[in-house]
Amino acid sequence: AMLRLRLLTWDVKDTLLRLRQPVGESYAAEARAHGVQVQPETLSQSFREAYGAQSRRFPNYGRGQGLSSQQWWVDVVKHTFRLSGVHEDRVVTLMAENLYRDFCSAHNWEVLPGAGETLSQCCQRGFRMGVISNFDNRLEKILSQCNLRHHFEFVLTSEAAGFTKPDRRIFEKALRLGGVPPDQVAHVGDDYTRDYRAARAVGMHGFLLRAARQGVEPEVPPEHVLPTLSHLLTRIEK
User: Fold this and answer.
1) What is the pLDDT of residues 15-63, one digit of tens each?
2) Of the candidates 8, 62, 47, which has an alpha carbon nearest to the alpha carbon of residue 195?
3) Is the preceding peptide bond at 218 cis, omega within 30 degrees of 0?
4) CB count, 10 Å around CB of 70?
5) How far apart are CA 174 and CA 185, in angstroms?
6) What does the alpha-carbon distance between residue 185 and residue 131 come to, in Å, rounded to a whole number?
7) What dotted CATH number matches 21-107?
8) 18 - beta bridge partners?
9) Do 81 and 23 touch, CB atoms closer than 8 A?
10) What is the pTM of this model?
């Protein structure tokens, strides 16, 4: 039976957009521009540590604790450089502010293969579309710079919602924004827990983007798995 869907909601990172290069490479290039030599691998490892610590201490960009997401990120970047042995405050602050700005643009993000075409086809078929993403308020600008923003009626970030996926409240907020009952909505994402299972928990349909080599959780039926984004319309219209 063909699904009677009116609204499609989308995850962004690693579903529609991905980083052009590993974080450590971007940070190392910024350091080199300031005459500071640090290995990308060192920076990548430090970043994971700094990001993890900041996320545990101040979840969802510190929104509930009075931090701005910009301050949250600048602190993560500074901590990353300090863990990597760079301690000169003035340079560390400058690099952190530059990197925060750079990650706001198409400079560091690229559209995943097939994403633009799939979104255009979905629009042509008359689906309404929105975004549900664990992201900070730079996402609108990033989507615009990558020429994807025009596909979406709304872009709901965890920073704006006050909740992160898999919390059901971010999905409920998206359903209110769309004004569509959950059984007429499908969510597309690459994370089993935060995207597929969370969407289904509020009564939405779910599609899980998974490259063949990644393997899939046993409770996901094959017709809900997308080896590539271009499989979406055939799955919906079957």
Assistant:
1) 999 999 999 999 999 999 999 999 999 999 999 999 999 999 999 999 9
2) 8
3) no
4) 16
5) 10
6) 12
7) 1.10.150.720
8) 110
9) no
10) 0.94
- Report the length, in residues, of the chain: 238
Smallest CA-to-CA distance from 180 within 209, 198, 154 is with 154
Amino acid letter, residue 171: F
Beta-bridged to residue 195, according to DSSP, are none
122, 233 Cβ separation under 8 angstroms: yes
**Positions of CATH 3.40.50.1000 in the chain:** 7-16+112-237
CATH architecture of 7-16+112-237: 3-Layer(aba) Sandwich (3.40)
Strand order in the sheet with 185-189: 154-157, 128-133, 7-10, 185-189, 205-209, 225-226
CA atoms of 189 and 88, how far apart (whole Å): 40
State both tokens at 124. 């042509």
